[in-house]
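Per your request, structure below.
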């Protein structure tokens, strides 16, 4: 009964979050594409993709493992344990973010032979946002684990793109020319405000304390659990972003911007996928405390919701995608074919994502990593072959084929592990991978 009430409230919250969030994010991308040149818009999307993937990397899976590890401390109102968890991964994220910033700076110098930040790619500017992205991710996961979905999702799904849209429109009205660094710096300021607000909410709700924290016990075992989750998430993000990097290398400059418009349009499916999984993951973490057989009900319940949502969204985007693309500009219609392949690929992966999460939470994350690496290599090879002759459509075909392969391999792995699993199986009976 309590689960049903949570799911109803959570479904309503996330439905509003997904729909409004997509519209607001789309408005931001439209305002940005019309304020910047097509080339600069493409640069922004490449830089944003870079910051996103690095934000996942520096946490070493802390955000992914949070619902599983924090289920018991949050239930027992052990705020010191939660604080210890956040501090542990927060320190790691800050240290690795600094290393990435230095590497990005030095890489730019080697390429450009200039120490001036103005001469570097937008990657350098946006690297300053990586620790904030990471901290926001870990705090959101704590709120999500505590079933406070509105506080976890609304700031990032709605407030962030809405605030960025307002800033872009204000800059366009006040300045003769808006530069890319203006947008990035404004975004970093907004990130800092949201992270500070979420931290305040956690303290106000008495879910977290940063004073006299309880240090994380058995840190190597925790990292042995979290890092495979991070690797699988990293590979998933890399697959979705590899096209932008390879188009930057192999295609015309303006094509990156056109492709970014198609990616933004198709992005509603991954947003819905992530939001639905976020709704069920706290329940899954609690259910796995009692064993896999008990948790399977949550898995299939979430899978049904995910499948229905993805099919409706995919059909809607197929019908309206070309009109949405032209909102960016008439020349963006050239990405229409690419959009269709991206929608199809996103659909393939979305109906598999929950099963992938299950494999990670039940100590089989190594299979997800292997599948992800195979998929990433496949995508890269197909991009290399298809982009020079087919441009952005070739990039989209590559992603579609790669995601279909990932979906097929993941389902086969899931069915195989279920067939060979013992009848009674607890996820807490030993080290990860030896269960």
């Amino acid at each position: 009964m309590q689960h049903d009430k949570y799911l109803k409230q959570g479904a309503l919250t996330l439905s509003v979050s997904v729909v409004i969030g997509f519209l607001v994010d789309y408005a931001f991308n439209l305002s940005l594409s019309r304020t910047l040149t097509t080339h600069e818009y493409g640069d922004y999307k490449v830089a944003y993709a870079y910051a996103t993937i690095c934000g996942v990397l520096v946490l070493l899976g802390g955000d992914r493992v949070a619902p599983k590890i924090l289920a018991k401390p949050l239930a027992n109102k052990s705020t010191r344990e939660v604080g210890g968890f956040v501090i542990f991964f927060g320190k790691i994220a800050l240290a690795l973010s600094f290393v990435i910033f230095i590497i990005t700076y030095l890489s730019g110098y080697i390429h450009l032979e200039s120490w001036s930040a103005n001469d570097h790619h937008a990657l350098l500017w946006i690297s300053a946002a990586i620790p904030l992205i990471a901290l926001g991710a870990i705090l959101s996961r704590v709120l999500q684990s505590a079933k406070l979905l509105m506080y976890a999702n609304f700031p990032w799904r709605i407030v962030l793109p809405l605030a960025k849209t307002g800033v872009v429109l204000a800059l366009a009205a006040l300045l003769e020319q808006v530069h890319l660094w203006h947008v990035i710096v404004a975004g970093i300021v907004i990130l800092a405000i949201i992270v500070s607000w979420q931290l305040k909410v956690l303290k106000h709700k008495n879910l977290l304390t940063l004073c006299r924290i309880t240090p994380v016990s058995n840190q190597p075992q925790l990292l042995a659990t979290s890092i495979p989750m991070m690797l699988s998430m990293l590979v998933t993000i890399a697959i979705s972003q590899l096209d932008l990097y390879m188009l930057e290398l192999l295609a015309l400059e303006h094509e990156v911007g056109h492709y970014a418009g198609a990616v933004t349009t198709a992005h509603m499916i991954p947003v819905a996928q992530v939001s639905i999984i976020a709704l069920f993951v706290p329940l899954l973490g609690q259910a796995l405390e009692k064993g896999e057989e008990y948790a399977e009900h949550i898995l299939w319940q979430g899978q049904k919701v995910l499948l229905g949502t993805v099919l409706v969204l995919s059909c809607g985007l197929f019908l309206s995608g070309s009109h949405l693309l032209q909102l960016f500009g008439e020349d963006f219609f050239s990405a229409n074919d690419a959009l269709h392949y991206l929608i199809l690929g996103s659909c393939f992966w979305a109906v598999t994502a929950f099963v992938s999460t299950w494999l990670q939470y039940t100590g089989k994350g190594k299979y997800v990593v292997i599948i992800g690496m195979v998929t990433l290599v496949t995508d890269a090879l197909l991009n290399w072959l298809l982009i020079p002759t087919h441009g952005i459509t070739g990039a989209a075909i590559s992603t579609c084929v790669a995601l279909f392969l990932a979906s097929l391999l993941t389902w086969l792995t899931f069915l195989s592990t279920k067939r060979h699993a013992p009848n009674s199986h607890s996820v807490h009976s030993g080290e990860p991978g030896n269960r």
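Confidence is low (pLDDT under 50) at residues 423-435.

Regards,
D.
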